[in-house]
Write a structure and sequence with these properties.
alpha/beta; Rossmann fold; Dihydrodipicolinate Reductase, domain 2; 2 domains; nine-stranded mixed sheet; six-stranded parallel sheet
């Protein structure tokens, strides 16, 4: 398919599933409402349904997640079609080809387990539905480096790399995109964005809730596979990448891949895993489970820009609040100019990614009055709490247009798995921690030389 040619149909496998219910139907309605989706939409699943049941499911989804726009919903229903069948049955894909009608450039979105990716890809190929098509696949893309390589080989047997869109919804978030924009659109920041001026970087992704009814899934995933290998390493790459040198679709992805290849493979001494008390009582969780619900890692990037700068990542559930934040700590001035009892804290640049969006500079300013003593101030340069588009709306729109910028490429996926491959499973002990705490105390050893963890503040 011509990389610039828009798709003329959208197929989503797993149409009756949880992801479709929570994310896809609201995104489809929004795309229809904004005039960005006006092609056949074919849901595929095995539920014994017809198209009317799928439309009912779509209405229920919208009523619960954002509301029904009756005009847009009516249009969505006109576009919506349905194929009911087993993914192992060739007849399912024969019927799909029939439902696609005159469409010759479909987008196939696989909201299904990765174990079924190969089966569906082969079914699409056999029915002629893969020709000139694009395919979108959900994370987790593999369970480790070896399985990711096997999965890539399976997809490449049917689709070229340019037609494979590996979706990571975190990359579709407006504040995550703004990391790159803010870095390279402002001349004051880039000259100090290197090992000469940056002391350390901390990235925190905290959730105040537990695994809820996803115990069985979490037993298969754990925090490293669920958010570190993908979300957190992608954010790190955006923070650490070199400026893209040209206006081309792969420029940003080239530079992210360079960062991921420069990351050292994590060793057991670089990681602390934790598990919140009560996790083993969740349905679907083994009584002696050693799966982590918290992880902290100390990462190093062996590049000219970042050599020697520790990058601390932590992510976990049942922490004190829900927030995602990046803190870049700058080195202190070379000497104390003012006669104060103690120097103030180091300057930091802070990016709040969720729930609110903020970019702030923490600095020192003179206190009012006589004498040259200072106080800490925060210069907040951006604050916003709304997004024009949800991540899935943005990413599906991009995939339909053939824009791969916000999707992960094969080399980046495999490079990220290489970074975490040595710390998967039980390579390190799992430490219990109290719900509502900031994780196990053992994680403090990773940050002793950088002044400790900087916990995100509660939302205002």
């Amino acid at each position: 398919m011509n990389a610039a040619a828009p798709c003329d149909a959208l197929v989503f496998f797993g149409a009756t599933g949880d992801l479709a219910y929570k994310q896809i139907f609201p995104s489809l309605q929004a795309m229809v409402s904004d005039g960005r989706l006006d092609v056949p939409i074919v849901g595929v699943a095995k539920a014994g349904w017809g198209v009317e049941q799928l439309r009912d499911r779509a209405r229920e989804s919208l009523a619960e997640h954002g509301g029904v726009d009756e005009t847009a919903f009516a249009k969505l229903c006109e576009l919506l079609r349905y194929v009911d069948g087993d993914y192992n049955d060739p007849a399912t894909f024969t019927e799909l080809r029939a439902q696609l009608g005159d469409a010759r450039r479909p987008l196939h979105y696989l909201a299904i387990p990765p174990s079924l990716f190969g089966v569906v890809a082969e079914g699409l190929q056999a029915s002629g539905s893969a020709e000139n098509a694009r395919i979108v696949v959900e994370k987790p893309f593999g369970r480790d480096l070896s399985s990711a390589q096997e999965l890539n080989a399976t997809l490449h047997s049917v689709f070229p790399e340019t037609a494979i869109f590996r979706i990571d919804h975190y990359l579709g978030k407006e504040p995550v995109e703004n990391l790159v924009y803010f870095r390279f659109a402002n001349s004051f920041l880039e000259p100090i964005w290197n090992r000469d001026h940056v002391d350390s970087i901390q990235i925190t992704m905290a959730e105040s809730f537990g695994v809820a009814d996803r115990g069985r899934f979490y037993e298969e995933a754990g925090t490293i596979r669920d958010v570190v290998q993908n979300h957190m390493l992608q954010v790190t790459a955006l923070l650490a990448m070199e400026p893209p040198s040209r206006d081309a679709v792969d420029a940003l992805r080239d530079h992210k891949a360079m960062v991921l290849r420069s990351m050292r493979t994590l060793q057991p001494e670089d990681v602390v895993r934790g598990q919140y008390e009560g996790y083993r009582q969740v349905d679907g969780v083994a009584q002696e489970s050693t799966v982590e619900t918290y992880v902290a890692v100390r990462l190093h990037i062996d590049s000219w820009r970042w050599a020697g700068v520790p990058i601390l990542i932590r992510a976990g559930k049942c922490l004190p609040l829900t927030a995602a934040e990046v803190v870049v700590k700058l080195r202190r001035p070379p000497r104390v100019v003012f006669d104060e009892s103690r120097p103030g804290p180091a300057n930091i640049v802070r990016f709040r990614l969720q729930p609110e969006v903020e970019i702030a500079l923490h600095a020192r300013a003179k206190k009012e009055g006589q004498g040259m003593s200072g106080e800490d101030v925060e210069l907040k340069v951006l604050e916003d709490t709304t997004e024009d588009m949800t991540p899935y709306e943005r990413l599906l729109s991009d995939a339909m247009r053939g824009d791969p910028t916000l999707f992960t490429r094969q080399d980046s996926v495999e490079a990220a798995w290489r970074v975490v491959d040595g710390i998967l499973g039980d390579s390190t002990p799992v430490h219990p921690y109290v719900q509502g705490s900031w994780g196990p105390a053992e994680a403090d050893r990773l940050v002793r030389d950088v002044g400790g963890w900087r916990d995100p503040a509660p939302s205002a």
